[in-house]
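Review form for a predicted model. The reviewer records the input and the model, then writes brief findings.
Reviewer: anonymous (R2)
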Amino acid sequence: MFEPPKEIVEQSFESALLPILESSLRGGSLLEISKSAELFKGELSFIKALTKKKCLVPILMSIPKCYEPKQHQSIFELLKVLESTSKIFLSCLTGSVSEKLS
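Model under review:
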């Protein structure tokens, strides 16, 4: 079974990968997501792949303050915001469907 090298977490902190993902998730209103659905789906697939290896999960959490650029919100925090936005959106859709069925 593949085990990523331990250095990969530190290299991820130093790369442009996290700021790019964070920027995408931060600007991820449902309208923006719908415009770039395939890209967003790919980003979520990548994030999901990171969660499959326990040693890579720190990449999704708050990174140490010694890295540049400074992180405003972790990927985990940004996903939580998207989760609540999505729940509100889905409840509106469900409410609309329920009202039409009544």
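Findings: The chain has a mean pLDDT of 85.
Further findings: Residues 80 and 88 are 13 Å apart (CA to CA).
Recommendation: see findings above.
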